[in-house]
Design a protein that fits this description.
This protein is 37% helix and 14% strand. By secondary structure, it is α+β, with helices and mostly antiparallel strands.
């Protein structure tokens, strides 16, 4: 196709005058549309990688202009194919002109062209999500954003079919292995200036704010057990006496939002070495005052930014953010950052977690 013909097609398309005399070749509008779809898919994949593993793909994150920009790119890329439809039939004004070319065909050929029923895909998905109970919706969305999304292809009940459950478990374990392979224990998560701190920092938990546990700091003792040499219970003054660090990092929630906070506390690697933890062990587990529990891998536990957090924005950690302490890991998604910690243990036996035991990915890296 010559440049003149190409430009002529592009100029005619908005006015509905696009011709398509040669049905064996694509016209200019079709070529642009198909190229746009290909580029959209590329952007969708690249931005999806940034959202999935923001810390582990820093060059890609910066190439797309940062985490927040990548979010916009990702969701606009998801919406783009719908914009190409133009009208409910998916043909658009230019498509209507092309259909007019088919109307000039012999009657026999016209009779072979059958009208296909129109289905509003967005409405179908919206109605299906509306029928799902909230926990099921959360699980549906979580699995659709990881390798566990393959479960959506089964068309089976994930609660009634034992073989499907086993298949999902295998997929989840494979997901964990891929994330562990991608994780670089020396790569730091981005840090930010104080001017970018989110105010107010959002509250988030599996219960309402009026049910936040109230822990007596004077009586508090942190229990330490498992593969450690020093099992004495730590008071808050003892913990505050350890070397302290501060970080301004982004908290990324599995539900899609993020916020930047200023956290202070003890480098967790310092604490583990102080209690004589077996640093070759596989897991570190946590039990909390709100009955939450979770566990992490040892490489993440030893990451330089993993912190036993005691303060928020220069003040004693507020109850709604996890008093008397939480574990802050900018390399993990929010649900992997336990609050109101009461006990820490080191083990080689898989400990699971509150959300992980309900189908969430265990590694949970960001």
């Amino acid at each position: 196709m010559s440049p003149r013909a190409f430009l002529a097609d592009l100029n005619a398309a908005p006015h509905g005058h696009l011709s398509h005399a040669d049905l064996r070749n694509y016209n200019a509008v079709q070529r642009v549309a198909y190229l746009a779809v290909i580029l959209d898919i590329v952007l969708l994949v690249l931005s999806g990688l940034v959202l999935w593993k923001s810390v582990q793909f820093p060059l890609l994150r910066e190439l797309l202009g940062g985490y927040e920009t990548a979010r916009y790119v990702h969701f606009y890329s998801m919406a783009f194919p719908g914009r190409l439809r133009g009208d409910p039939s998916g043909h658009g004004r230019a498509g209507a002109a092309q259909l007019g070319r088919h109307a000039a065909r012999p009657l026999k050929e016209k009779q072979m062209i059958k009208k296909s029923p129109l289905v509003d895909g967005d409405a179908v998905v919206k109605a299906a999500l509306g029928r799902l109970e909230q926990p099921a919706r959360r699980l549906f969305l979580q699995r659709s954003l990881t390798l566990g999304g393959l479960s959506l292809l089964s068309g089976c009940s994930i609660t009634d079919n034992e073989s499907v459950e086993k298949a999902l478990l295998k997929i989840s374990k494979m997901n964990d292995k891929v994330q562990a392979w991608l994780f670089d224990p020396n790569r730091l998560a981005p840090t930010y200036p104080a001017s970018m701190i989110t105010q107010p920092f959002p509250y988030n938990a599996f219960y309402s704010e009026d049910k936040v546990p109230q822990v007596d700091g004077d009586d508090f003792r942190l229990e330490v057990s498992g593969l450690v040499t020093d099992r004495h219970a730590w008071s808050l003054p003892e913990l505050h006496a350890l070397p302290q660090t501060e970080q301004i990092t982004r908290h990324i929630c599995v539900e899609g939002w993020s916020a930047i906070g200023r956290w202070g506390g003890v480098p967790f690697s310092t604490f583990l070495r102080r209690v004589g933890a077996d640093l070759t062990a596989r897991y570190v587990g946590f039990k909390c005052a709100d009955d939450y529990y979770t566990s992490i891998d040892m490489p993440t536990a030893l990451h330089p930014q993993t912190q036993l957090t005691l303060s928020w924005d220069g003040q004693v950690l507020p109850p709604k953010y996890g008093y008397p302490m939480k574990l802050r890991m900018p390399t993990k998604l929010g649900y992997k950052n336990p609050k109101h910690i009461q006990a820490i243990f080191v083990t080689n036996t898989y400990p699971g977690g509150y959300w992980e035991d309900q189908g969430y990915n265990w590694f949970g890296g960001s």
